[in-house]
Every structure is written in C-alpha cells, then in structure tokens.
Amino acid sequence: MSTLETIPPPSLWVRLWDSNMGYSFRRNPVAVVSLIIFVAVALMAIFAPLVAPFDPYDPAQIDIMNSEYPPIWIEGADPSFLFGTDDQGRDLWSTILYGTRLSLLIGLCAVALQAFLGITIGLIAGYVGGRLDSLLMRLADIQLSFSTLMVAIIFLAVTQAMFGSETFNQYAIYFLIVVIGVAEWPQYARTVRATVLAEKKKEYVDGARVLGFGPLRIMVRHILPNSMSPIFVISTVQVANAIISEASLSFLGLGMPPSQPSLGSLISSGFDYIFSGSWWITAIPGVVLVVLVLVINLLGDWMRDVLNPKSFKG
Amino acid sequence: MNDMNPAQPLLELKGLEKRFELDRGFLETIKFRSGKIVRERREVHAVNNISLNVERGEALCVVGESGCGKSTVARLIAGLLTPSGGEIHYEGERIDNRSRHAMMPLRKKMQMIFQNPYASLNPRMTIQQALEEPVRYHNPEMSKSDVLEKVATVMRSVGVDPSWAKRYPHEFSGGQRQRIAIARALTVDPEFIIADEPISALDVSIQAQVLNLMLEAKNQRGLTYLFITHDLSVVQHFGTRVAVLYLGSVCELADTATLFENPKHPYTKALLSAVPQLKDDHPNHIRLKGEIPTPINLPQGCPFESRCAYANDRCRVEQPRPLQQADGSIVACHAVEEDRLES
Questions:
Q1: Which member of B8, B19, B165, B267 has the greatest number of CB atoms within 10 A?
Q2: What was the ipTM of the complex prediction?
Q3: Rounded to two decimals, what is the model's pTM?
Q4: Which residues of B touch A1 (CB under 8 A)?
C-alpha cells in the first residue's frame, strides 16, 4: 500500500490562489478589474469618515452659501470641493462616500436577510418535500407574482403614513432592509430547493440517515455545504439588485431621508436642479451607482461561469 | 453476543413488499381511456412478498439482474424506505414501523455500505470529520482523545493511513474511498452490515482488496453481512448462503455450495450458465428468450413464466410457493415441485 507524504496544509490564501477559481480569476481581466474597483469603492465607503474631507451629517460644517459649486475642473469652482457641492452646500464627494456606505450597508444586510429566509425555507422545502414543499413553493410563487418595488412602495408608504415622516426617517434604514429582504426571499428559496433536491438523492445523504443523524444535522452539516456554489452566485446578483431597489425607493422619496442621503436620495435631490445647470448633483452619484452595480454584476457573471457544475466539479 | 436464543435469526423478513407510486397527486391519476375519464393509479411492484432469514455470523448474498429489487430490499432493511407491506424483525423485534428515535439503538448495530464510493462520502468533509461525526454522535460522553483514538484505530483496521485524515474524499482513488466508507460504517461497531453492491463500481484489481477487507472485518468482529451483488464469482468467494431474486420475488435460496453445484430453479440455471468459464471453449449457455416483464403490470402467475422453457398452464395462473427441497434449499417453481425438469 502506498503511503502519501503529509505535506503541511497551505494557508487559506495560498489554497484560494492555487484553486481552480483563483486560476480562472487571474485569467479573466474583467473579473480582476471589477474586483479592484469594487474593493476600492467598498474600502472608501467603509472608511468614509477618514477619507471624506467633510462630515455631511454635521450641520455645523454645512454652509448654504456654498451651494451648487461645480466640480473643480469646471470654471467657477471652489478648490476645496472636489466634485462640487449640492443644493444645500454639502461637499458632494463626502456625501457620495457616506451615501455609498449606506447603500452598501442596506444592500448587504437586505441580502443577508433574504439569504437567511430563503435558505431556511428552501432547505426545509427541498428536504422534507411533499405537502410542505408544495405549500412553501406556492407561497414563493405568490410572493414572486408581486414585483419587489410594488410591495416595497406599498409597505413603505403605509408605514410612512402610520408613523409620520419624523419617525420614519429615523428608522428608514431598518424599514428598507426588512422590506427588500422579505420581498426577494423566493429567489433564494427556489435555487436552494433545486440544489437540495439534487443533493438529497446522493448516497452520502443516505449514509448519514443510516447513521441515524437527525434531519437538522443532515440539512445543515451535509446538504447545505454542498449547495453553496449557487448561493454564492445568486448572492452577488442579489446585492446588486438590492442596491438598485434601495436607490429606486430613495429616488421615489420612500427611502433614506435627504438629511442622511444614500446614493438614490442624492440622485433624487439633484434631479430638481438638473435643468438649471447643476447636473453634477445627479450625474456623479449616478455614475458611482452604475459603476458599483456593474462591477458587482460582472463579478457575479464570472462567478456563475466558474461555479457552473458543467465546467467545474468541486 | 447478547443473543439468548441461538435459533432466533438476526434478521427476519416476513412477506416484505414495496410498491412505488408512479402517479403522484390527484391530477396525474386521471386518465383518458376509451372515451371515458377514469382514475387510475399505477404502481411499480419493486419487492413482492419476500421472506428471508439472516442468521447471525453468515454472509447472505442477494443476486439478480438489474431492476429485480435487490437494492430496494437493502434500503428497506436499512430503514431508508418504508415497506408497503410485511414486517422486518431484528433480533425478534419489529423494526419497520419504528420512529427515528426508536431506531437509534439499532443504528449502532446495523450499518450500510453503498455502491458508489464517489457519492457516498460527503465531498466537503475531510476523512477525519467524516469518521469522527458518527463516533461523537453516538457516544456523546466520549472524550476528545478517545474519539481520535477510535478513529485512528478504525482507519488502521481498513488499511488507511491515519496521517491521510486531513484530506478530502476527492484526493483518494475509488478503492481507498470505499475503504474509508467501510471505516465509517465500522466506527459505530455494528454487528450487521448491509452492503449494496459495494464493489461493482470499483476497478477489478481493487475489487478483491475490498472484498478481502470485508471478509477480514467479518472474521475479526464477527459481523453478519447482507451482501447485494450481481457478480456470481463474488458470491462463490464471499457468501455462505445465496438468495436469487427475480422481479422482486425470491426464486431460490440455498447454501452457496449447494446452489453452485445443483441449481434447481430454471432462472438460477440460466444465471449460472452465463458465468464465463476458463476451461470451456464452447460454453452451453441457456439463452433466455424475451425481456424481463415490467414490474408495473406483474404477471399473474410465476414471475419467470414468460421466459421459462418449462412453463405450462399452471405457471401462467398460479404463483409458485417457496418449498423446501431435500438438500435444504428453498425453491419457488412449479416445475421443480412437479419434478418435470429433466436435468
């Protein structure tokens, strides 16, 4: 019998770099550029208080007399405001950094909520099967037959009317996370259920059952780790979707209040001035939003190609 | 070991049946037949009225062609499927209607080895994790060092170097994986192992290795096997008794030596004549005509009637009963009963 030498296990980073995924990543310039841009944007957003020259939430730093300065490469700009200022005299560069932070936070938290709901429901539906499966999947169908935006608009409009603008603005970020999170769980539930149905037939699940393991243990310890690749793919796409949804809702005035603007509410607030010459208040946050969503989607595309079971067997 | 009554078989199947529904749900049962809408439920009769005993310490081999219900029998006994009829008794106690919790003590006594070693190990678990999990689950009071010790012992006993434990299943060959799968079953110290074609997915050169490993485990641990296979040479090497299955029914049950020397059922004869022999240039195969009938519409009489050279009118209408023969084998065949087989 041959004896294999025990090589010391390489670090996680080296394993990742040497893996199939790492190789395909290095060979794909679109993915590399997308990841670099995404990491740059995310880092700047996370460290916004350190990067930003002004604090847009601090009224003491805002002077209405500074309003509507253009970006510095345009005639008549104030050199202390890189991308100019908005209608209230806030530095646009700082506001965009803080807004991106909010947008990313809402997007990630909403997707975490979606993933939690969807994975739980999908696992149960797929593993238990039968009537429970039919019931949960019909619920998902019903949920999917309403568009996310419609559900969100109705819910947010009703809560805004119920609690009043003041309270709503205070808790807007939580409302947004919950409504976007709840509205899109069927995407996850369906994907997870489909993979669970495929994994359930494999012999290692039978083996676990013969060893007497309980359904919870089999679902969480055995089936779920083997269903991760589609979950990764759908998560990237859903983060982009959630950011877009948040921006749309804020643009419609149902999201973040103008005092704590996300990218969407920033675009919305500049919209009134777009024809009076101050195009930058809308255009620059708009470009940031588009770039952010685009790189996330490109990363998702690449990940879907890599994790496609037809091209890669893990 | 704790069996008080030596006459009591370890495992007893009494009239076991399993039917799979083909038309699930209300809408699928509605059919359009000759101008009328009727409700009709079709079923696959995978296992029909099988009665078998497995004695302590033996290796009972179950053979038969594809689709005859061998694997279904194994899965019924392991509790992966619930029977549609009949009873399964283990050490005299009925087990087929128990809940998962009531089955727990049995899970340590009865284990299963699967056909495909490429699918029967969780690809995301290292060997160490895969082997530790059952030990910890069934012995929660065991200390960490005891668990590690146990896992290392089991790994050595199946010829897997414990230093490989940090590796994932895809880093091993099929034979190594099957040995690891056997090790996993052995971690709970079972007394009865159901092996569902454990070597048919392996390379021929590896098959003997794994088979010898299983025999070794049998001798050392006093295991009892229910061994599902379609390879008759394996049966000769491994089995103490053989049950031949055809279309979900037992047609012959005999000691291995008796069966190979003197097969009685026409199907067993045909099966044995198909084993390639080195000494014989012009083998005299018994050619079966026709196809195996569909298990959806079972023949009314003997299941083998449509392909049997000795079938007569009685075979077409009456199912043969399993009858004990003079040499101890049990055969279900009218022709054997009436002694109209010329041999």
A1: B267
A2: 0.84
A3: 0.81
A4: 159, 161
Q: Kindly list the distances between the CA atom of residue B138 and the CA atoms of A70, B104, B237, in Å, as whole numbers in the listed order.
A: 71, 9, 34
Interchain pair B114, A206: CB under 8 A: yes
Closest Cβ opposite residue B119 in set A202, A217, A221: A202
pLDDT of residue B2: 47
Do B279 and B143 reside in the same domain of the chain? no
For chain B, positions 70-89, list CB contacts with chain A under 8 A: 75, 78-80
Taking CB atoms and an 8 Å cutoff, what residues of chain A touch B161?
A: 1, 3-4
**Each residue's pLDDT tens digit, B101-125:** 888 888 889 999 998 888 889 888 8
Quote the number of domains for chain B: 2
What is the percent of chain A where pLDDT is above 70?
95
Residue finishing a domain among B214, B239, B264: B239
> What fold does the segment set A30-307 form as a domain?
MetI-like fold (1.10.3720)
Instruction: Select from B24, B100, B122 the residue whose CB has the most chain A CBs within 10 Å, as the one to mutate to test that interface.
Output: B122
What CATH number is associated with residue B205?
3.40.50.300
Any A CB within 8 A of B101 CB: no
Interchain CB distance below 8 Å, B124 and A225: yes
Q: List the pLDDT tens digit at each of the 314 positions of chain A.
A: 445 555 566 677 787 777 777 888 888 889 999 999 999 999 988 888 888 888 888 777 777 777 777 777 877 777 777 787 877 778 888 888 998 999 999 999 999 999 999 999 999 999 998 889 999 999 999 988 888 888 888 888 888 888 888 888 888 889 889 999 988 899 899 999 999 999 998 889 999 999 989 899 999 999 998 888 888 888 988 999 999 998 888 888 888 887 888 888 888 888 888 787 778 888 888 999 999 999 999 998 888 888 765 554 44
Edge to edge, the sheet with strand B224-228 lists: B110-113, B192-196, B224-228, B59-63, B241-246, B249-255, B330-331, B323-324
- Give how far B327 is from chain A: nearest CA, Å: 37
Q: Which residues of A touch B166 (CB under 8 A)?
A: 6, 9
Q: What is the pLDDT of residues B119-166, one digit of tens each?
A: 889 888 889 999 999 999 998 888 899 999 999 999 998 888 888 888
Are A212 and B161 inside 8 Å of each other by CB? no
Q: Are residues B156 and B72 in the same domain?
A: yes
Per the structure, the complete domain to which residue B283 belongs is given by 251-343
Chain B interface disruption, residue of A210, A220, A227, A313, most B CBs within 10 A: A210
Pick the last residue of a domain from B206, B239, B272: B239
Average pLDDT, chain A: 85
Residue B152 Cα, gap to closest chain A Cα (Å):
15
* A207/B123 Cβ within 8 A: no
Cβ-defined contact of A203 to B124 (cutoff 8 Å): no
Whether residues B216 and B256 fall in one domain: no
